[in-house]
Design goal:
Oligomer: single chain
Helix content: 40-55%
Number of helices: 5
Order of helices and strands: EHEHEHEHEH
């Protein structure tokens, strides 16, 4: 099933705007959430085809949220791509172990993000 609906989870309004604009230009529907609680509300309202996940957020971080989503039978089929400033190899490995299907460091490169999305389609 092609990816059409994307949920972007990031506590930075700048990043939310940047990623939303980028995805809208690709013809995708975008919803946003600024924290884990809001992300779960968005998931319940309208299940996305893809989640772009920040790591560093107040409260539950992106690693914890990715683990919770990927282990929930209702949402475990949604691919998650981590989009984060955490650029260490150990962070990437940990993110993938939590259930992420991709890992991109910020600033997000549009071509790299598109390649990761295309690989999931």
């Amino acid at each position: 099933m092609p990816i059409q609906k994307v949920l972007v989870v990031d506590d930075s309004k700048t990043e939310l705007m940047f990623l939303s604009d980028l995805l809208h230009k690709k013809g995708l529907q975008v919803r946003t959430a600024e924290n884990a609680e809001e992300a779960f509300r968005r998931l319940a309202e309208d299940k996305p085809d893809l989640i772009l996940m920040d790591v560093v957020m107040p409260g539950q971080n992106g690693f914890q949220l990715t683990r919770a989503i990927s282990r929930d039978p209702q949402y475990s089929d949604i691919p998650i791509i981590m989009c984060t400033s955490k650029n260490q190899e150990t962070d990437r490995v940990w993110g993938m172990r939590q259930g992420a299907r991709g890992y991109i460091t910020k600033p997000v490169d549009a071509a790299e993000l598109q390649a990761k999305i295309d690989a999931l389609n």
